[in-house]
Design a protein that fits this description.
By secondary structure, this protein is an all-alpha fold. The chain is built from four helices and no strands. It has a domain of 51 residues. The chain starts with a helix and ends in a 12-residue tail after the last helix. About 7% of the residues have low confidence.
């Protein structure tokens, strides 16, 4: 149950992160600046860019934290039953008795 909640939160945060990354304008450098993408600070675009930058970092940190914490919520009851079945099989297996060899 808890793992399902973490999984849903991870999917939501990942989708938001993808959307915010897609909304951002490419910054200087690369091919976009060589084709005239230099002036991006007109009319409050810089403050929007700062918000998108901070939200990208925040969502990525939240995503990593959710992934790490969800590791502790993974249901492990099935693994215990499988291991006990394997252990019972090993314990109930007949061990062959060693054959004595005659002394020279």
């Amino acid at each position: 149950m808890t793992y399902s909640i973490f999984l849903i939160l991870i999917i939501i945060v990942a989708a938001l992160l993808v959307l915010i990354i897609m909304v951002q304008n490419p910054k200087g450098g690369g091919l976009s600046s060589s084709f005239g993408g230099g002036a991006q600070t007109l009319g409050g675009v810089q403050s929007t860019s700062d918000f998108l930058d901070k939200s990208t970092w925040t969502l990525s940190i939240i995503l990593i934290a959710l992934i790490l914490v969800s590791n502790f919520a993974i249901p492990r009851a099935e693994n215990i039953e499988d291991n006990s079945r394997i252990q019972n099989t090993i314990e109930n297996r007949e061990v062959p008795t060693p054959v004595e060899t005659p002394a020279n």
